[in-house]
Amino acid sequence: MNVTIELLVKNRGSEGVSNLSVEVSPMSEFLKVWAVGGFAEGSVHHVGYLEPGGERRLKYSVYIERNSYPGKYGLKITVYDVYWNILATKTIYIEVITKG
Questions:
Q1: Would you say residue 100 has pLDDT above 60?
Q2: How far apart are CA 8 and CA 12, in angstroms?
Q3: How large is the C-alpha radius of gyration of the chain?
Q4: Rounded CA separation 96/83 (Å)
Q5: Phi, psi (deg, nearest 5) at residue 78
Q6: What order do you get walking across the sheet with 55-64 strand by strand?
């Protein structure tokens, strides 16, 4: 089963951020993640420069394997700068109601 998620990344600071990247990592072997559109590579969106107050909408495709069990499965969202310093992280969950 495929699910599409959309994230809004916003710069709330007073300075622009260069070479920004956003990665979504599955926290379970039952999930696979791909970044969709833009400058995407695997599960990473390369946003580039984000001006103060600027925002970007990013799409990801999440594949849930057929043999997954009902329950919540985590996705870790990490925002990096050009030197791969972690600027922010957040965990979200996808809930599987029925098997297969």
A1: no
A2: 12
A3: 15
A4: 36
A5: -130, 135
A6: 2-10, 55-64, 31-36
Q: Which residues contact 92 (CB under 8 A, 6 or more apart)?
A: 5, 74, 75, 77
22-76 tens-digit pLDDT:
999 999 999 999 999 989 999 999 999 999 999 999 999 999 998 888 999 999 9
- The domain that contains 53 carries what CATH number? 2.60.40.10
pLDDT at residue 99, rounded to an integer? 61
Torsion of CA 92, 9, 2, 97, to 10 degrees: 30
| Token pair 């990490």: residue | 78
Nearest to 75 by CA among 89, 59, 56, 55: 89
| Phi/psi at 52 (5° precision) | -55, 130
What range does the domain containing 6 cover? 2-96
For residue 64, what are its two tokens? 């849930």
Rounded Cα distance, 47 and 68, in Å: 32
